[in-house]
Design goal:
Layout (H helix, E strand, L loop, with lengths): L17 E4 L5 E8 L3 E6 L5 H13 L9 E7 L5 E7 L3 E3 L3 H13 L9 E5 L2 E7 L6 E4 L18 H11 L1
Parallel strand pairs: 3-4, 5-7
Antiparallel strand pairs: 1-2, 2-3, 4-5, 5-6, 7-8, 8-9
Length: 174
């Protein structure tokens, strides 16, 4: 799948290091990346990314700049070359890990010149470390990390919407 900061209809005006102001008045720059879903990746210097995601993620998720909402990743580069991450996932809130978010961070790091394509990156998320590698042509992203079962359940198929209802919803959202 092709990825990039200007692809996908999720962004009204995507780009690299674009300014954005949180509704409470705090300014940031973000790099917009579509991984099939929209991500606003914000690199920070000295602050705790998880604290920022929890405090500022809700306001940025619903920012007017993102008509269909956005996943927000706060990322702090560490002296050892790793990246500490906090993720606010649209519709879900603060999360322990996010695969598409981790991939978006890798792409954003390359687009911003913080990392080189083809070089492995280690992201430190609350749910554990993830390895990311962005292909040299930025056309693929490889993710490596543990998978942990966090929920098990069952669904009564009679309670699911019909295929027609799903298609109507998909059409309405397009």
């Amino acid at each position: 799948r092709t990825i990039g900061p200007t692809r996908g209809r999720e962004f009204a005006s995507p780009g690299v290091r674009e300014p954005i102001e949180h509704p409470a008045g705090r300014g940031f720059t973000f790099t917009g990346v579509s991984m099939g879903n929209p991500h606003a990746v914000i690199f920070v210097a000295d602050e705790d990314p998880v604290v920022l995601a929890k405090a500022l993620g809700p306001g940025l998720e619903k920012h007017g700049r993102f008509p269909r909402k956005v996943n927000v990743e706060f990322v702090r580069p560490e002296p050892d070359g790793t990246y500490t991450v906090g993720v606010w996932e649209r519709g879900a809130g603060l999360t322990a890990a996010c695969g598409t978010g981790a991939c978006a961070i890798g792409v954003a790091a390359c687009l911003e010149g913080r990392a080189r394509p083809g070089t492995p990156l280690t992201l430190l998320l609350p749910g554990g470390p993830l390895g990311i590698e962005v292909a040299s042509d930025l056309d693929q992203v490889f993710l490596e990390g543990p998978a942990t079962l966090v929920y098990s359940g069952s669904v009564d198929p009679a309670g699911l919407p019909t295929v027609e209802a799903c298609l109507r919803l998909q059409s309405a959202l397009a």
